[in-house]
Amino acid sequence: MLPRRYRVHSTWAELAGVASMELTPVDGAAVVFQPGQFNMLYAFGVGEIAISISGDPAEPDRLIHTTRSVGAVSAALTDLRQGDMLGVRGPFGSAWPVAAETGRHIVFVAGGLGLAPLRPAIYHVLEHRERYAGVTLVYGARSPDELLYAEEIKAWKSRFDTEVEVTVDHAGSAWTGRVGVVTTCLDRALAGLDPATVSAFLCGPEIMMRFSVMGLADAGVPPDRVWISMERNMKCAIGFCGHCQFGPEFVCRDGPVFRHDHVAQLLSMKEI
Amino acid sequence: MRIHGIEEILSEHPVFKAFDKETLGLLAGCARNEHFRAGDRIFTEGDPADKVYLIREGDAAVEIATSERAPIIVETLHAGDVLGWSWMVPPYRHMSDARAMTEIRAVSLGADCMRTKCDDNPVLGYRMFQHLLPHMAVRVRALRMQLLDLYGTRKG
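Predict the joint structure of the above. Result:
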């Protein structure tokens, strides 16, 4: 599958070493995507990596990705500027089941940059808020200056129909919010909810998701109502090359969004 | 306005919910109401750990200060949480600072009084540890996760 050419419409810094960019196709129409899916972004002459789509699925013309500069390709992507060109393959992978979970209380649990793959689902749920019994976002980051989409979080927090709990691992004295881990914050957020009505979508470091899933189970959230987004080294993105193999699953093709009880056994295995 | 007795306040706190009336009566003898305004220092590192605070309302920051940098908040505690566990462990000195982030209403239990009652009544002592240890365990687990510095390298 060949990459399509896209041009960088705009870029903006999110955090130190983290940038978002909006892309527009050079040829043809924009591609519709589902919340949770990813694209393979190709920095010409450097390489290609999988990056989650972090924009609004209702606005496919504004294709947005958020990237942390951690290697050669991601550094090249975060260095792109308005007017630069790159290759895009996708969208690929499974999606958050936002449409199937209408009528339920959606609990989003995000850690660090894990908020980026969840944001399209958050947009969808908030745009169709009347279809859901409730919405709670629990978000953890390393420190206050590493909170992704901080302005948007403030806006979500100011809504009367949405609960937002933010916590950081450590902070200076000027911080007036919570300090502690996501799992502690999640326990509190779940305390006032009927667990049978909760559907949870989690994205963040695997260990954070593992402990959060335990918290959800302890609170009584049904195991078949918990989804996680996995991250592995994806290359072909169509389940051929095996780079992202996770037990019998290919993260690029069968994931990245998995119902937790389908992969729970694999998550407890070491170093796969 | 309804006035809550200290036994009733204790019985509403998550740690003491399961305690019977007689035990609560014993503990109430060590308890007093506390109030802190936002910004008040609750205790300072090195202070004798002479009280444990059961937070009823408000938010507290547990901080560690060093000479080279401004204090760092390592944990915040909220309604239903227990502030201070050094009273249980020799040498009974606080190992961090605690500050009220917002107005706090709490019940404090005197450490000497509690230790004496627990020594005199081992059943009470055992129950105290049974109910306080889970709170400590949750916090130790949380601190372990903080030590992992989870959020440093995830790609978006």
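Residues 118 and 125 of chain B are 4 Å apart (CA to CA).
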